[in-house]
Every structure is written in C-alpha cells, then in structure tokens.
C-alpha cells in the first residue's frame, strides 16, 4: 500500500468502532459527539505543532463555525447541515487567510500570544453584542441533512454526520502532510533558515497550515452547535483554546487518528470524574491528565510508535 494512505485503515476502523459503540450504547452518543467535535480543532492544532507552532486561539474559529450555523439558521432560515458546514468552512478560511498573512511572520511565544489575543477579541465582541445573545448565546433548532433530522431523538444521525466530517477532515490533513508544504512544516520547526536556503517559503507553509487548522476548528464548532443545539461566547474563551492544547499534547503529533482518540478519552474521563467526584472532578481530571503526560510524553500516538520498535528489538535479540 502507498505509504501516503497508511493512516486510512486505522482511521476507518476507528470510525466504525465509534459508530458501533454509539449504536449499542446510545446513552453515550452525546459524550462521543462532543469529543469528536473537539477532536477536529485539535487535529488542525496538531498540524501546526508539527511546524513548531502552538495556537492558543483555535477557539476563535471554533466560535466562528458555531455562530455561523446559529446565525444562518436563525436569521436566514438555512437549516441544511451540508450548506452550513460549507459556509462555515469557507468563511473561516477567508478570515484565517487574512489573519494568517500577519501571523505567519511570527513564531514561538509571539505566535501563541497573538492567536490568543485575537480569540479573546472575538470573545469580547460576542459578550457585548446583545443582538448575538450576549453571554447567554442562543439556541440552534431544526438542523437537518437533506431533510433528515440530526438532533433530539435523531441524535444518532448527527453523530454519523460528525463521524463522516471527522474522517474527511483527517484524510485531507493526512494527504496534506504528504505534500511539499506539509513536509516543509518539520523543516520550519527544526531549521527555518535552511528551508529558506532551499528556495521554499516557510511563511507560506505556515499560512497554509494555519488556514487548514482554522477550517478544522470551524467545522468542529459548527458540528458542536448542531448537536448541542446551543452556542455561546465560551466557545471563543481562552479556556476552550487551552483545552484544545491539552488534548493536542495528550494526542501527540504522530497521526491523524490520535487527536480524536485523545478528545474522546478526555470527555469520557471528565464524565466519570464528574459523576463519581462531583465536588472534586477538576482535581481528578487534572491528576489523570498529569499521569498521561508523565507516562506518555509523546502522547497517545507514541503508543503506536512504541509497538513496532518493541517488535523490532525482539527480532534482533
């Protein structure tokens, strides 16, 4: 098999497994959906991390995707999920392209702080805008896919759509990683000067990666708004962007499946922690995250790398 598509079998297998779990355990549909929706912005964030960049402002595009769905459905009567997802992706890509022209010139802490500042700027606008619901946000109702309901008793349909969006997003970013610009990201992280000496543009590679990451975050926000049925300014708050960074650290940068696994694992752990330790669930969740980081410094994707190395070591011995 072409090495470009080696991620496809585990990706499709993981998607099928999530669908089976949701089918036989419908009470977990909402938790799985929230985890997968957060996995999309984390997938884009992992792409940026391959270039040595950490964005603390992915909540900006997460909120843009959610508010695009809410505004288009409430004020323009657009209820089809396919059209809403396309509009969210295009709108976020245009915003990210304009913003990325500035951000692509910065690296390290400057890049991180600028992304955080832009996200908090949107948060401030949303909180102060009574027309957009202010701090309470507003509800999203009646979203369908070609006439098929996606919420309420038909939430399974929404989860299946979300799984399809996650698979397509992972495939696109996996294929991008095999392109010239995708491979340049590692060079930007390791030695940007050498990249420029080779005649390639590091800023252009960062710009493309930033736009792709923004589209992933917007799709996640759009699907979150559809499934949850509510959007609010917290989607753009720094804590939301920080959670994406934590999940990205848990996932590692080794593959396109790990961000979704890490996001779902975190949501499941959060649910159990809140259920069995309602007064100290944040402490329990923090301890579990700390343990995962200590024992899996390369993230969940490090488990995949460790397996083949152990096999090879056994064969040599």
From TrEMBL:
GO terms for cellular component: plasma membrane. Keywords: Cell membrane, Membrane, Transmembrane, Transmembrane helix. It comes from the Bacteria. It is found in: Cell membrane. GO terms for molecular function: branched-chain amino acid transmembrane transporter activity. InterPro entries: ABC_transp_permease (IPR001851), LivM-like (IPR043428). It is a multi-pass membrane protein. The lineage of its organism: Bacteria, Pseudomonadati, Pseudomonadota, Alphaproteobacteria, Hyphomicrobiales. This is Branched-chain amino acid ABC transporter permease. It comes from Ancylobacter defluvii. The chain crosses the membrane at residues 7-24, 82-102, 109-126, 159-186, 207-231, 243-269, 281-300. Pfam families: BPD_transp_2.
């Amino acid at each position: 098999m072409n090495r470009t598509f080696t991620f496809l079998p585990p990706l499709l297998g993981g998607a099928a497994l999530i669908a089976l779990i949701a089918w036989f355990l419908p009470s977990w549909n909402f938790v799985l959906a929230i985890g997968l929706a957060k996995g999309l912005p984390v997938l884009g964030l992992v792409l940026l991390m391959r270039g040595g960049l950490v964005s603390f402002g992915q909540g900006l595009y997460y909120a843009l995707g959610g508010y695009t769905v809410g505004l288009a459905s409430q004020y323009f009567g657009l209820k089809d999920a396919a059209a809403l997802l396309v509009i969210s992706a295009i709108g976020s890509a245009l915003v990210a392209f304009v913003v990325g022209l500035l951000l692509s010139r910065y690296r390290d802490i400057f890049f991180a702080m600028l992304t955080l500042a832009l996200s908090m700027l949107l948060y401030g606008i949303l909180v102060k805008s009574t027309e957009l619901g202010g701090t309470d946000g507003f509800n999203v109702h009646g979203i369908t896919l070609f006439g098929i309901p996606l919420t309420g008793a038909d939430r399974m349909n929404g989860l299946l759509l979300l799984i399809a969006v996650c698979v397509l997003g992972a495939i696109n970013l996996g294929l991008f990683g095999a392109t010239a610009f995708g491979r340049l990201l590692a060079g930007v992280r390791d030695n940007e000067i050498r990249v420029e000496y080779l005649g390639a543009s590091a800023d252009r590679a960062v710009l493309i990666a930033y736009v792709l990451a923004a589209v992933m975050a917007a799709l996640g926000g759009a699907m979150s708004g559809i499934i949850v049925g509510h959007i609010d300014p917290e989607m753009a708050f720094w804590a939301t962007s920080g959670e994406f960074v934590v999940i990205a650290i848990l996932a590692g940068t080794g593959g396109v499946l790990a961000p979704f696994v890490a996001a779902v694992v975190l949501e499941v752990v959060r649910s159990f922690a809140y259920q069995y330790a309602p007064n100290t669930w944040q402490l329990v969740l923090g301890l579990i995250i700390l343990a995962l980081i200590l024992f899996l410094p390369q993230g969940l994707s490090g488990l995949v790398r460790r397996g083949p190395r152990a096999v090879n070591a056994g064969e040599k011995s």
